[in-house]
Specification:
Blueprint: E1 2-4, H1 6-14, E2 19-23, H2 27-32, E3 38-39, E4 57-61, H3 66-79, E5 84-87, H4 90-97
Length: 105
Amino acid sequence: MKLISAKDLHVLIEQKADIQIIDVREPYEKEICCLGGLALPLDTVLQKIDQISREKKVVIHCKTGKRAASIITILEEEYGFKNLFNLSGGIIAYAEQVNHNLERY
């Protein structure tokens, strides 16, 4: 599984790179803090698989990286995705390393 660090993701966001960010946390978690991007709660990802790009770099994140890792494994092994990256440490790492204004929970 490919990982991307919070700092590297931040660089891509600042450069307005053509990436897709997918948040697999629950809606109440997204209300606490978010990075933007597409909200696909974990239990809806496979029903909305057509919304996940196969062409561009796709960064999938959750709170700590565990839920993202589980869905990335499924998407890679069962659906043939090759362009997925897990945000290492999740949004918590992003809040600690990049954007200190994001609320931690």
